[in-house]
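Aim 2, interim progress: modelling of the magnesium ion-bound target.
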Amino acid sequence: MAKFKGAVVVNTERCKGCDLCVQACPSHVLGLADQVNSKGYHYSEMKHEDDCVGCSACGYVCPDACITVYKVKIQ
Amino acid sequence: MTTKDIIKPENLVYGKTKLMTENQMHYCPGCSHGVVHKLIAEVIEEMNIQDKAIGVAPVGCAVFAYNYIDIDWQEAAHGRAPALATAIKRLQPDKYVFTYQGDGDLAAIGTAETIHACNRGENIVIFFINNAIYGMTGGQMAPTTLEGMKTATCPFGRNTELNGYPLKISNLLAELDGTCYVTRQSVQKMASIVRAKKAIRKAFENSIAGKGTSVVEFVSTCNSGWKMSPHDSNKWMEEHMFAKYPLGDLKDTEKVHTEAK
Ligand SMILES: Cc1ncc(C[n+]2csc(CCOP(=O)(O)OP(=O)(O)O)c2C)c(N)n1
Ligand code: SF4
Ligand code: SF4
Ligand code: SF4
Ligand SMILES: [Mg+2]
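Predicted structure of the complex, ligand included:
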């Protein structure tokens, strides 16, 4: 079975720290940062990047279009 | 393979559509409005109708929708979006004309405009964000507020004896001969978002094919008004809102509207 590895980039300035992407990720990759952005929001970031499968669930549920998802097939 | 190796243009699978502007949306963190905006923008981009789409923005939290999706817009007076959309569509029949309205806008002050536009079978699309509350003005009871649900104007919960019953307005609209497609969708998880996007596309296609009015209701959250976290709001919506407002198609007729008469 083909395996995929993914990675996401969060637009941390656009992010409002709503936590929906964190909750949506089936692989528990994301978490809210200890730091805040210029609006004072704890933005989302990859906490366990090795576990990302590039499924895009985080991107779909993000109300503020902050997330870009990349994915590659690995043998 | 490291994260750096994966983050390359050729591996891109999901990102912000160019039709969403760089303006930061004013919505509260986690608000359903943002997801629906994104989906409408994605469909318009995928259908390549950016120059032919005209939105009519409501009064309500989505009053600034025109700042976020890069197409032509008009701003309507409260509840009057379907009337304005009627005029635009009749003057420019080759355009994809849609309204974007909350439950206060569509099902309270704008009830008459909504019903009559649907009854006339105007070839427009109505996007209806049902979050069961007046979000913008601070969380007052709406016609769609659930029985027992607490809001600023029914702090002990909606009492149906005093306040009447939650209005399933999409069911009413499905009864009208002018509507060709009435569906109820949601945007809280990936699978529902994929379905909602298909409904948006179908509605746009109906409007240009002259089939009549399409109504896409999005059962939504207003986490600020509901006084819950965005995630808890989604759970509460699934448990309570879906019971009163079940998802799925309420009407889908492939008949051409003029022939149906
Ligand atoms: C003529 C008029 N009456 C009342 C108002 C006050 N008002 C502004 S938004 C709104 C209701 C908004 O609720 P809804 O349509 O559900 O949108 P939401 O903010 O929940 O998305 C009301 C009553 C107004 N702006 N104009
Ligand atoms: S792409 Fe999927 S696995 Fe990766 S962070 Fe997003 S939700 Fe999690
Ligand atoms: S869903 Fe979007 S706005 Fe919310 S925390 Fe994640 S990236 Fe930020
Ligand atoms: S008040 Fe409610 S509907 Fe309005 S932006 Fe905030 S969460 Fe969204
Ligand atoms: Mg509302």
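The two ends of chain B are 62 Å apart (CA to CA). Residues 25-252 of chain B form a domain with the Rossmann fold fold (CATH 3.40.50.970).
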